[in-house]
């Protein structure tokens, strides 16, 4: 099935894609976002089960940049953003509704198609043709790619120069366990603990964080080394090891748990610039936290910078 030619298509409805789409829409372009997930937000992911509420990807965000700080200041006092704790003179923010609340708010009013997996992107004269796994074909003159860079490089036949520029970008993997507790956790206030010993990376008490639920939910994020080594290990074995390691801080028996794998959790090798624009026709720009910095606000600022580059063309 072929679709009408769009002014602009953004692939990836995480924070970078949403920020880019919102900026382009505000400038008068009609934008369509495509995302393979069931909902927008990418690693700003939240879910409920067994009476507990979890953030199971990004746990908080900061607002170091004045532009992003103005955005967050506009949300303070609402359910979208709230201070969680201060550390090293910097405030960490979260959402009482879960980290997915911010991307959900930014997505309001945008045209978004979720559960669309892009299989290939081809240049057809002055258009980009986006082919999905279901055989649908979308067309546009302007393309914004906010997928993890290795995925972007697999989707499109980039020039050798582009591959040399971007090929070194790498990401950590992360295995996550969401544990429902019988009682309260033993994680000290404010409910976030960065662990310096393998196999753990961080522990977060979502109830202390302010997420509503009848039960306490603790998010356990494994270290990059453990995650890489155990990527293909059965989830029951992974959960057993991580729950055992986290036991001193759990404080209560675990009644239920869920497991999630983040293949592209956080960029380790990033690009020195907030976006990567490919000159020529049709227009193409790449954005995401591998360009804006490995933080939530980095992804947001990258999306805006990429959109502004396009608008200047």
Characterization of this structure:
With 313 residues, the chain is of the alpha/beta class. It folds into 2 domains: 2-38 and 114-169 and 270-311, FAD/NAD(P)-binding domain (3-Layer(bba) Sandwich); 46-64 and 172-267, Polyamine Oxidase, Chain A, domain 2. Helices cover 28% and strands 34% of the residues. It has 10 helices and 19 strands. The chain has helices at 15-26, 66-75, 101-107, 149-155, 160-166, 206-209, 224-229, 235-250, 289-292, 296-311, and strands at residues 2-6, 8-11, 31-34, 46-49, 52-55, 82-87, 90-94, 111-113, 118-124, 127-132, 137-140, 142-145, 170-181, 192-194, 200-205, 216-222, 254-269, 276-278, 283-286. The strands form 5 sheets. It has a 6-stranded mixed β-sheet, with helices on one face. It has a 5-stranded antiparallel β-sheet with strand order 14-15-16-13-17. The chain has a 4-stranded mixed β-sheet with strand order 1-11-10-9, with no helix packed on it. β2 (8-11), α1 and β3 form a beta-alpha-beta unit. α1 runs parallel beside α10. The longest helix is centred in the last third of the chain and has 16 residues, at 235-250. The radius of gyration is 20 Å and the shape is globular. It starts with a strand and ends with a helix.
Keywords:
globular, 5-stranded antiparallel beta sheet, alpha/beta, 6-stranded mixed beta sheet, FAD/NAD(P)-binding domain, Polyamine Oxidase, Chain A, domain 2, 10 helices, 19 strands, 313 residues
Strand content: 25-35%
Overall number of structural domains: 2
Summing up helix and strand content along with how strands pair, one would put the structural category as alpha/beta
CATH-derived topology of the largest domain: FAD/NAD(P)-binding domain
Indicate the radius of gyration in whole angstroms.
20 Å
Instruction: State the CATH architecture of the largest domain.
Output: 3-Layer(bba) Sandwich
Order of SSEs: EEHEEEHEEHEEEEEHHEEEHEHHEEEHH
């Amino acid at each position: 099935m072929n679709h009408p030619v769009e002014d602009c298509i953004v692939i990836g409805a995480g924070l970078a894609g949403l920020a880019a789409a919102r900026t382009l829409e505000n400038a008068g372009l009609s934008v369509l976002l495509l995302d393979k997930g069931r909902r927008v937000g990418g690693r700003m992911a939240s879910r409920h089960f067994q009476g507990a509420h979890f953030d199971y990807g990004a746990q908080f965000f900061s607002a170091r940049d004045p532009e992003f700080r103005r955005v967050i200041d506009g949300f303070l006092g609402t359910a979208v953003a709230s201070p969680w704790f201060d550390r090293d003179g910097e405030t960490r923010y979260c959402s009482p509704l879960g980290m997915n609340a911010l991307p959900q708010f930014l997505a309001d009013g945008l045209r978004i198609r979720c559960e669309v997996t892009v299989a290939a992107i081809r240049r057809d004269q002055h258009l980009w043709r986006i082919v999905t796994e279901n055989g649908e074909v979308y067309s546009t003159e302007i393309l914004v790619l906010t997928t993890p860079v290795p995925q972007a490089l697999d989707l499109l036949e980039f020039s050798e120069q582009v591959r040399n520029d971007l090929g070194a970008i790498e990401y950590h993997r992360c295995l996550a366990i969401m544990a429902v507790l019988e009682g309260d956790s033993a994680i000290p206030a404010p409910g976030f603990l960065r662990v310096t010993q393998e196999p753990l990376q961080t522990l977060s008490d979502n109830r202390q964080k302010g997420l509503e639920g009848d039960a306490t939910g603790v998010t356990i994020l494994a270290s990059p080394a453990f995650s890489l080594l155990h990527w293909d290990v059965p989830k029951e074995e992974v959960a057993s090891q991580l729950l055992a390691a986290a036991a001193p801080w759990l404080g209560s028996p675990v009644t239920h748990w869920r497991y999630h794998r983040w293949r592209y959790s956080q960029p380790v090798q990033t690009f020195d610039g907030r976006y990567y624009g490919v000159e020529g026709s049709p227009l193409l720009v790449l954005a995401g936290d591998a360009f804006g910095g490995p933080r939530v606000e980095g992804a947001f600022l990258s999306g805006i910078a990429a959109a502004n580059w396009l608008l200047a063309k």
